[in-house]
Amino acid sequence: MPPETVELDWSYLSGLADKVAYSIAQKWSVVEKDDVKQEILLHAYEQRPAIEANYHHEDFLWKIFTKAGTQYASRERNYRDLIDDQYYYTPDEAKAALKSFLYTDEELARMVGKKDDLLQARVTDNLVSARIDATASLKKLSGRYQQLLMRRFVYGLPVTEQADRQALSRAVVTLAQYMNRSLRTRAA
Question: Is 54 within 8 Å of 60 (Cβ atoms)?
Answer without folding.
Answer: yes
